[in-house]
Q: What sequence folds into this?
């Protein structure tokens, strides 16, 4: 497959582009910043929120799919979040429709449902939107846009609600929410190649012993995680906020420290 990876210079993007190329896919990178030294595949320095710039990339490249990773990976102002996640997704979807590109894999986030209490039990793909931050609000809206384009234009769209992408888990919460780099590549490849998913949601975590987010939606799409955060449990130290962080899907983002005016600085 010839795959446009946005946010290709980022922490997930570098792992995913390397992994997809190793699996035999042709990768085209896109990011606001230049390619890392030695990048062996084509690269576009462009802003995904700029519809004309995105259209120019699609006009130049023949593509089979998009992996959309570009965006602010943390809390910011509401307008910045909406631009970063919703406007970028819209620009890509418009270009996909115009150029007959049939599939998108989106780096959504657990923060789209971050205010869901752990007390509700296993987190399934049917959890209602329940963001914990403006970041989460933007992920909810981006997911809604993907669903709209799947219904209107028959685009296959897989929203991967990623947990904690790190080399190794760094907190007690991370023992449940960790996504290893190798599993991240497995997840993206499954979402790219599973037959006709329509619009689908999966939880992007590894096969963690302490996981409480449902892995079945991913397995139905062919995502079989192989790693387990438990292998690192001895190295994770207890923290003062472990209990609060365990209370909701979104961990620290679901706490009062993240309250701020929607349109304030
Ligand atoms: N890292 C995690 O644990 C995690 C968890 C859940 C979701 N996600 C999502 O995964 C995606 C990637 O996260 P990451 O951790 O690799 O972040 P990152 O900050 O390391 O990488 C993001 C990349 O996107 C680029 N970028 C940002 N805005 C852009 C734009 N408008 N146009 C083009 N490029 C742009 C940046 O230059 C950067 O290289 C984000 O959408 C994030 O919300 C990450």
A:
């Amino acid at each position: 497959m010839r795959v446009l990876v946005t946010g290709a210079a980022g922490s997930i993007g570098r792992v995913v582009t390397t992994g997809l190329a190793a699996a035999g896919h042709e990768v085209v990178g896109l990011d606001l910043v230049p390619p890392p030294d030695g990048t062996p595949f084509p690269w576009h320095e462009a802003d995904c929120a700029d519809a004309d710039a995105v259209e120019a990339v699609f006009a130049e490249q023949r593509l089979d799919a998009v992996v959309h990773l570009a965006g602010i990976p943390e809390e910011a102002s509401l307008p910045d979040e909406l631009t970063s996640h919703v406007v970028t997704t819209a620009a890509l979807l418009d270009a996909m429709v115009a150029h007959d590109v049939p599939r998108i894999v989106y780096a959504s986030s657990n923060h789209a449902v971050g205010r869901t209490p752990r007390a509700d039990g296993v987190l399934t793909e049917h959890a209602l939107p329940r963001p914990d931050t403006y970041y989460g609000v933007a992920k909810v809206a981006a997911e809604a846009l993907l669903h709209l384009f799947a219904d209107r234009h028959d685009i296959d769209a897989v929203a991967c609600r990623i947990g904690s992408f790190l080399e190794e888990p760094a907190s007690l919460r991370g023992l449940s929410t960790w996504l290893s780099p190798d599993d991240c590549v497995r997840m993206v490849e499954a979402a790219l190649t599973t037959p006709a998913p329509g619009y689908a949601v999966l939880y992007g975590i590894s096969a963690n012993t302490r996981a409480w987010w449902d892995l079945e939606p991913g397995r139905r799409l062919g995502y079989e995680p192989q790693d387990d955060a438990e292998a690192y449990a001895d190295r994770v130290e207890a923290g003062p906020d472990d209990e609060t962080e365990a209370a909701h899907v979104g961990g620290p983002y679901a706490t009062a420290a993240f309250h701020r005016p929607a349109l304030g600085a």
The domain at 2-258 is CATH 3.40.50.720 (Rossmann fold).
